Amino acid sequence: MASDIQIAFQGPMNLEKYDRSLPAALQHPSVPLPFLDSMAVREEVFVKGQNIPLLLEADSDDCRSYHWVAYTHDDYGSPIPVGNLRLVPFPHEAHPLPGSSFDLPESPIPTSNALKAQSRPWIVDRQTSFHDGKEPYLKLGRMAVVEACRGKGIASELVRTAIEWATQNSALFNQPDSKDESAVELDTSLVTWRGLICIHAQEYVADRWASWGFQVDEKMGRWTEAGIPHVGMFLRVKLTQIG
Question: Quick check: 210 and 141 in contact, CB under 8 A?
């Protein structure tokens, strides 16, 4: 990793003052700076680089996610955000079906520009190669490094940092008092994280995720998001303490 790179952390936050129709530079001052810097990177890579509409780049998962932002520095020592990664806790929506498409402009435009947290229902998902459809997993996503800083080990350091943090703080993800939408208490095994991590990877960078230990889940299949082919990949990490 480049010697001048530093990584900042931002936990779940209230983003009701965030207006997803505006770029990060024009957001309300109450929005935490690491998240604004994270969004600045995502806008550079996804909105400008991959033509993702600004309204669709931020989503309700951002409010409940954990974010890491990588910084370099200019000639005066001021920090410049150059990379970002987020980790979304469970529960998650269902796995995409093989051959499905979430291409634009068919993706739904939010009815409100406000960025508010939304609870996700607990579901039994379809079984895939590495997921039984029930076990809770964490989901890494929104990995982005600005073009000028690629090839310097920033992505690797973000992934390493996030996974290391998750394994050291695994109890944060366990929700023993959770109930499903029918107000029925969930079995402990369904609300305890046991080291499974998922990534919906753009297919052309699947080899890069493989270098970090992730394996392509063949039964999950391929699908497209914003016209970009994706694959599901999983990694299981060893936890020193569960529950």
Answer: no
